[in-house]
Structures are given as C-alpha cells and as structure tokens.
UniProtKB/TrEMBL annotation:
Keywords: Chromosome partition, DNA-binding. It comes from Stakelama marina. Residues 1-45, 227-252 are annotated as: Disordered. Belongs to the ParB family. The keyword DNA-binding applies. Involved in chromosome partition. Localize to both poles of the predivisional cell following completion of DNA replication. Binds to the DNA origin of replication. Gene3D superfamilies: 1.10.10.2830, 3.90.1530.30. This is ParB/RepB/Spo0J family partition protein. One of its GO terms (cellular component) is chromosome.
Amino acid sequence: MNDPESAGQPAQARRPRPGLGRGLSALMGDAPRNQPSEDGAPQSGIRMLPVSALAPHPGQPRRTFDDQAISELANSIASRGLIQPIVVRPHGKDYQIVAGERRWRAAQRARLHDVPVIVRELSDAETLEIALVENIQRQDLNAIEEADAYRKLIDEFSHTQDALARLVGKSRSHIANLLRLLDLPVSVQKMVIDGDIQMGHARALINAPDPEALAEQVRDKGLTVRDTERLARGTRPGSGGGGSRPGTPASGAENADIIALEQQLSDVLGLNVKIAHGEAGGQLTIQYSTLDQLDMVCQRLSGERI
C-alpha cells in the first residue's frame, strides 16, 4: 500500500506493506512455509506452535468477545480442527497474536495443545492495521471499538483519514462519522458497545443538548434512528417530521427520510448508498471500488460470516 505517512522516511528504511486491506488470505499467500534461519530453526511461515506460547496483543481493537460464539467455535474446532491459522509476531521468547485471538481462545477451550500459525515480522503500526482489517472484514468490531482503533492509528502512527479509508476499504465519510462517536459521553458509548443502541442512533445524538438522557429514551422506548433524529431536533418521535405514504411521490419530508436511510445504510456498510424511490418502487444502489468490498456486501446480504 502506498502510505502517504511514510513519504518522509528514507527509502532504505521502508518495508513493503504485508498485503494490508486484503485480509488474511493475502497474508497467508505471502507467507512462506518454514523458512530456516542461519541456525536451521524456522523463523517465519506456517507452522504449529503450542497454545501456551501465544499471548493476546494489548492493543487489539476488539475488546468484547461473545462467550456463546466462542463455545460454538470451540466445538467446531474440537471436531474439525483449527482450519485457519492464527497470525502472530515474535515477542520476546514467545509470540504475540496479531489476528485470530478469538480462534486462540476457542482453541484453548477445545483443549488443543498446538495450533497452526503464520509468523510475521511486523511493526506496532502494521500489527494494529492488520488486526483492524481482519476484525472489520469479519464484522467483529462494534462501532466504538472500530472508532478507537482508527483514533489510535491517527494519534500514535500519524495516519490520515484518507489513508485509513484506503486501508480498510471504507469511505472517508464512514471513518469520519465513526470518529465523531468518540465525542459522545462514555455512558452513551457503552450503550453502543452493549448493543442497547446502534451506530445510527448514537450519530444522531452527537449534537444533542443532553445525549445521555436522550440515549436512555431511545433504549427504553426502542426508537428508530429516524425517531432519534427527530428527538435530537426537539421534535416528538412519530409526529409530522417524516412519515412516508406508500404509493405517493416523495415529499420533502419523505426525501429527508430517504436521505437519512441512505446515510444509515452507508454507515453500516462503509460504502456510498443511494436510494431512488418512486410511486412504483425504486432502486437501491451500493457503490463499491474493489472486489473485496463487493465480496463483503454479498456476504452480508447472504448472512454469511467470513
């Protein structure tokens, strides 16, 4: 990846990016098998390592793990083995997990002694980048975790929003909208993490006078994103601000609802979404720029997890 942040570094100090933005398949494709070092010991590639030799990365973007999902994965691993290797990097005498902590946790629960790994020499920035890309492609991060990872890459490693958008295959507006969530009170961010409200709800509350009180209303009443937007504007949810009537041309209020829906879908997918609505129906257009983005959309539409 052509990283603009590295433009000021000496050419001899730069190292090729390890397939960032293309997921673990690119990492596995780039990794040789058991390359020997001068003393004959394998230094990188795919190999088996003891589960106890691996440790989680403290900067892992994902902070919450669904216990039931890990148990289900552990049962699958116990019967079929761990099919996809864990990506690690050397760390002291042992190894630090770059991507695959969920699989490592499940392997422990399945009582595996050894697991397949891909060993890579990675910097701290590359480690966080790969962990972020992998979790996003697996849809494993909530909006706050994803925003925290973006903020860390910006603050600690001088990435720009444009560079992050290229890195994860999302739109720049998606990155910007997520980062704005970190301006919300911690209690509202926790509601997003716990799944009490969604990203669209939280985004509507960013400029509200009392986002904490409004977020509690949204959670307790089960309000929609558009109801939340009206609530944040001081309009009573469900009142004249945007009910659409099927079979009629789009009014100004309905247009506002369609724009809000476009933004909500764009936030979920991280891609530009357009809706053309008319009396006889309409069209939903999702714009993508890479095959990875198309693959992600297809998987989400089919309900398949990567």
